[in-house]
Amino acid sequence: MWPLYVLFSKILNVEAAEEEEEEEDDDDVIDGLVGKWHDQDLSMSHFVEVPHVNQLQSWDCGLACVVMVLNTVGVSDCSIEALADISSTTSIWTVDLAYLLKRFSVRFSYFTVTIGANPSYSVETYYKEQLPTDVLRVDMLFEKASEEGINILCRSINEKEISCLILSGKYIVIALVNQYKLSRTWLEDAILSSLDDSNREYVGHYIVICGYDADSDEFEIRDPASSRKNEKISSKCLEEARKSFGTDEDLLVISLESSNKQKKSCWGKLPPLNINNT
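^ that's the sequence the OP posted. Answer follows.
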């Protein structure tokens, strides 16, 4: 299995070849991050200022995370409602978020341990109702991803590797987690009114990871379901929440340097979305 920095180098090589306007090769940015951690060449803490955005409904946490990312890279006039209109579905998967980011020219890599909709999730209460109608749509999005310029890697990433990406100062991450594996102190603030106790085994939820402190071994996150604008979570808690059955360990790793070069208005002319989401 290739190490993380080699995979990123290969991904960004392809993207750089496709985007002639890119001024520099991102290989030098990615290559050796994990090695630098062991050599103590990375800082011991780093935090990216990501404006907190609350979700509006129980299903739009992923859209709220995309709005947070867009605000961070300079797209400040986009709303959850606008993204919901583009998505045309209330059943949001990570691949839906990937297509949204691509529409706004945000540069990212999509990591998952499952390509397509996982049929084994049909036993989960959280997925049981929607999965049968989502399978064809989600699988088609995965199939079309390559021609749409979306790179998807079937690969697990651990918390040490995430911390290296954050400490480099060049990345933030959208992660799919099990909400009930997050710190119990957050639950009273979470938007869970539409969910009953029978769903406690798994409830899918998206967060933005935007900081890490090596001394405390804690990540800073933005949780769209929380009233708190800044949250910290232990590395152990994040790993349990991210690797819970149902998440596919989905991660969208956003390159801040590359994305900041292409600021785009939400209300400006966007490239057409060629995938039928209905």
